[in-house]
Amino acid sequence: MCGAPRTAAERHPGHPDFCSHVRSNTTVDSAVQNFAVAHLRRRALVVETGGFVAGFEPDTDSLYINYATPLPGARPGAADVRALVGEFRSRGLKPRLEFAPEAAPAVEPALLEAGFTLEEEHVYLVCTTGTLTAPAPGGPEAATPHTDEDYAALDAALCDAFEGRFASSPEGVARLRRTQERGGAVRLVRAPDGSCAGGGGCSAPAAGTSELAGIGTRPQHRGRGVAAAVVHSLTEAMFAAGAGSAWLEYSGDGSRRVYERLGYRPAGRRLYMSIP
Question: Dihedrals φ, ψ of 136, to 5°?
């Protein structure tokens, strides 16, 4: 979303020692992977080939928007991987996948054999209706943007939060608005001076779950409960929309602790793999 990475403001790989101690839950992995498939099928252009689903948006070349994921249980052969790579090459894009490896165990070896490398490995956290916990009282409140100015202010704040890894743009503003209007949710937190301190969003539920993504706080407002307010409000919104769970990825130990206090728990791994 918004061309932003999928974690909190300072995106870092999940710590490898922590990743290695997370026990995967096959049911949760399947739900997360089914969501990933459904989410990509919402893209403006969708290509399905050889057990993979690739989603593309013509208004951006962002790696975080144009990528692929396997169907749960996919067992691709070399020709299938070559066909997928060709879909990216024909559009001038870097072939890249995001997926929960336990939901499709044959995929990682097939990609490695084809020359893909592991960019990052992240632990994802899951919250259910039974574990969601409100932030400590006295913190900031998250609000839904309504005007074009609201959405533009949030897009600019996320650009700052992610330290310029994507540029604030009319296309990013439009994607935020579409997320809210198509069954997802977008939230922002205002600073005392009325500017946007940070925010984030989540896509409409699919497969009984929803992903919170692009949660970011401007550097000068970090440590003040902005992310907690945004994540709690988004999670409540998805539960109200019928999701039984919500999931996200974290950056460092600080953000993990914030999310765990809200009721999120480590549940599995996701891999990010690409080929030059």
Answer: -60, 145
Segments forming the whole domain that contains residue 99:
16-124
Least reliable range by pLDDT among 5-9, 33-37, 76-80, 227-231 = 5-9
In-domain check, residue 24: yes
Cα separation, 146 vs 127, whole angstroms: 27
Query: Rounded to 5, what percent of the chain is helix, strand, coil?
Result: 35, 25, 40
pLDDT at 88 over 70: yes
Q: What percent of the chain has pLDDT over 70?
A: 91
- Structural domain contains residue 176: yes
CB 219 within 8 A of CB 255: no
Q: Which helix (H) or strand (E) holds 68?
A: strand 67-70
Residues 70 and 112 reside in one and the same domain: yes
The Cα-based distances of 133 to 103, 106, 248 in angstroms read: 28, 37, 16
How confident is the model over 97-119, as a mean pLDDT? 98
What tens digit of pLDDT does each residue of 17-33 get?
A: 444 444 556 789 999 99
Looking at per-residue pLDDT, the higher value among 4 and 174 belongs to 174
Query: In the structure encoding, which two tokens stand for residue 85, read together?
Result: 């790579």
Interatomic CA distance for residues 115 and 96, integer angstroms: 12
With contact defined as beta carbons under 8 Å apart, do 11 and 31 qualify? no
Residue 129 CB partners (closer than 8 Å, separation 6+):
239, 244, 245
Domain shared by 204 and 102, yes or no: no
The residues near 167 (Cβ < 8 Å, ≥ 6 apart) are 3, 159
* Residue 222 and residue 116 share a domain: no
Q: Which of 60, 65, 69 is nearest to 1 (CA)?
A: 65
